[in-house]
Write a structure and sequence with these properties.
This protein is an alpha/beta fold. The protein has 13 helices and 12 strands. The strands form 2 sheets. It has a 7-stranded mixed sheet, sandwiched between helices. Helix 7 links the parallel strand 6 and strand 7. The radius of gyration is 20 Å and the shape is globular. Bound molecules: nicotinamide-adenine-dinucleotide.
Length: 438
């Protein structure tokens, strides 16, 4: 199988130790998500019953995953699947493998998926899943056994019309292939629509692997234009060099932007004249990290967020821009490649400093848009051309950007508040039209 990204599961002997990137002062993702909803619900005039219904996940499943390790010992892992809302269609959301996964984090990510799907008008509700494990500590065989057992444990609530998974932190197209095979075996026939982000040879979509990053760059370009900054010659810093950050850096560099700093969980690098992103990609493939890239200087990981750049793209984890560092951010624009990188308190500080924040539910929606295209292609057994996928992705991203900006201008809101209100109102409309059963 061809992996479009370096596998996350093979530690390199040269890989440095993990660093914590400025996480002091971070609040919980679930608190942030709930506060965003509360603000939208109050502004939309919802009563307590409706607000509570939107705040609570529709279904949650916690599963125990016994794993036989390669050395014969047994380890017991915990996995979660949360379906936040299914008023607009089947639940849709990624699967995360990280030691930091908790039920509350999965709840927050599932809620954001609900708003994202509604904002981009894809016919899904929101879900998320996760297993608390560090994939780098497990062999490929062990990860396959974990994935297959997790899939069989959550079988009662997943299906191509019920809940569709996709890659997120620590998972990739190979993980999706294992899920698809496990589910298909349970059904007695191949069911490609059970996951998106599959390998191309199993019915994956052209353009899916880079879709989130392409979408981030469509929004970044639109945001730069809106402030009268030329993309060509603009400066950018990118936190995270995984599935989202790496291609976002590449596409920005291809557009003529100067990517002056990037980081991953092992550290950060900086080069004022701009990093050679293609050469950096080769370095990461060889060593497993951006650290030690020849022509760049080392940078304190937390300092990347505070560089004087036009564009900052957090594309790693939640809560990295918080009350403790928001006032030090010098970027003019933040485009959220990651889910939940900016805390509520930081949002207010950034707004008062005039930093334009393109929120996650808009900026990183490219992945779910092309996931939707992949699901449509799977259901029709018909493959679209890459140029059709990319043109339709751009059209939807820019339409959503325009709608959010218009709403923000009309009501004097931040882009996040505007995006959240639009999305919450769409979910509520679907709920109202369907009625409350019984
Ligand atoms: P990934 O596992 O492929 O990459 C994560 C990257 O972040 C890695 O380079 C890792 O080293 C780095 N990282 C982790 N912790 C860090 C830290 N504290 N500081 C700096 N770097 C750190 O994951 P991904 O799929 O690229 O996801 C990244 C973010 O984007 C997540 O928030 C995810 O939910 C979000 N997202 C992903 C997709 C998608 O299609 N993959 C879609 C929408 C949103």
């Amino acid at each position: 199988m061809t992996l479009t990204q370096p596998s996350l599961t093979q530690p390199s002997p040269t890989q440095p130790a993990v660093v914590q990137t400025g996480l002091t002062g971070r609040t919980s993702a679930l608190d942030d998500a709930q506060a965003q909803l509360a603000e939208a619900a109050a502004a939309l005039g919802y009563d307590e019953g409706l607000h509570t219904m939107l705040a609570k996940p529709r279904r949650e499943l916690t599963v125990t995953i016994p794993l036989r390790r390669d050395d014969g010992s047994m380890q017991v892992l915990t996995g979660y699947r949360v379906q936040h809302n299914i008023s607009r269609g089947p639940a849709k959301g990624g699967l995360r493998y990280s030691p930091d996964v908790t039920l509350d984090e999965v709840r927050a990510l599932a809620m954001w998926m609900t708003w994202k799907c509604a904002l981009l008008d894809v016919p899904y509700g929101g879900a998320k899943g996760g297993i608390a494990l560090d994939p780098r500590q497990y062999s490929i065989g062990e990860l396959e056994r974990v994935t297959r057992r997790y899939t069989s444990e959550i079988l009662p609530i997943i299906g191509p019309q019920q809940d569709i998974q996709a890659p997120d932190i620590g998972t990739d197209e190979r993980t999706m292939a294992w899920i698809m095979d496990t589910y298909s075996v349970s059904q007695g026939h191949t069911v490609p629509g059970i996951v998106t982000g599959k390998p191309l040879s199993l019915g994956g979509s052209l353009g899916r692997a880079s879709a989130t990053s392409r979408g981030v760059v469509h929004i970044a370009k639109a945001a730069l234009h809106s402030l009268g900054i030329r993309v060509d010659g603009s400066t950018a810093a990118i936190q995270g060099f995984g599935k989202v950050g790496r291609d976002a850096a590449r596409f920005l560099a291809d557009e003529g932007a100067r990517v002056v700093a990037v980081s991953d969980q092992y550290g950060a690098i900086h080069r004022a004249a701009g990093l050679d992103i293609h050469a950096l990609g080769a370095h990461v493939d060889a060593t497993g990290s951006v650290v030690g890239f020849g022509s760049a200087d080392e940078l304190e990981a937390a300092d990347l967020l505070e560089l004087d750049v036009d564009l900052l793209v957090p594309a790693a984890v939640e809560g990295v821009i918080h009350e403790g560092n928001a006032a030090s951010i010098r970027a003019r624009i933040i485009v959220e490649g990651a889910n939940g990188p900016t805390s509520r308190a930081a949002d207010a500080i950034l707004a008062s400093h005039g930093v334009l924040v393109a929120p996650d539910i808009l900026a990183n929606a490219g992945g779910v848009i092309v996931s939707y295209f992949e699901w449509v292609q799977a259901n029709q057994s018909y493959r679209w051309q890459a140029r059709d996928v990319e043109a339709r992705l751009e059209e939807r991203m820019l339409a959503a950007w325009a709608a959010v900006n218009e709403h923000a201008r009309a009501h004097e809101l931040t882009l996040r508040a505007a995006a959240t209100r639009l999305a919450v109102a769409r979910v509520t409309e679907a709920h109202r039209l369907r009625g409350l059963y019984p």
